[in-house]
# Entry
Amino acid sequence: MPRMSSKVPGVQGCAVERTLGLIDGKWKIVVLYKLLRGTLRFNELRRLIPSVTQRMLTHQLRELEADGLIIRTVYAQVPPRVEYTLSPRGRSLEPVLMAMKEWGDANLPSQEAQAA
# Structure
């Protein structure tokens, strides 16, 4: 069984708290959302999320992998190729991620509207 994320010890708290323990972190939800489109390499994720630092993205990916939400595949070639994809457990978060996107689309002004 995958370990729980660092901030929520064991299985204490309600289901919402335990779920947040897996997906908390500034970039985890964004990474999961980007991986809904399919397998991506590290640099592809960096381009899709330009505000995240390399160090932070690496950290978030490691936690997501440890929690069983993503699968990291390393190909033995030079230079090494590493790909990330949602695990079945991570894919099960799709309705949650899409609900968050829909809520944001309906309730938060777009960047274009803020600039006007």
User: Anything to note?
Assistant: The chain has one domain: 15-108. Residues 1-6 have pLDDT under 50 and may be disordered. Residues 15-108 form a domain with the Arc Repressor Mutant, subunit A fold (CATH 1.10.10.10).
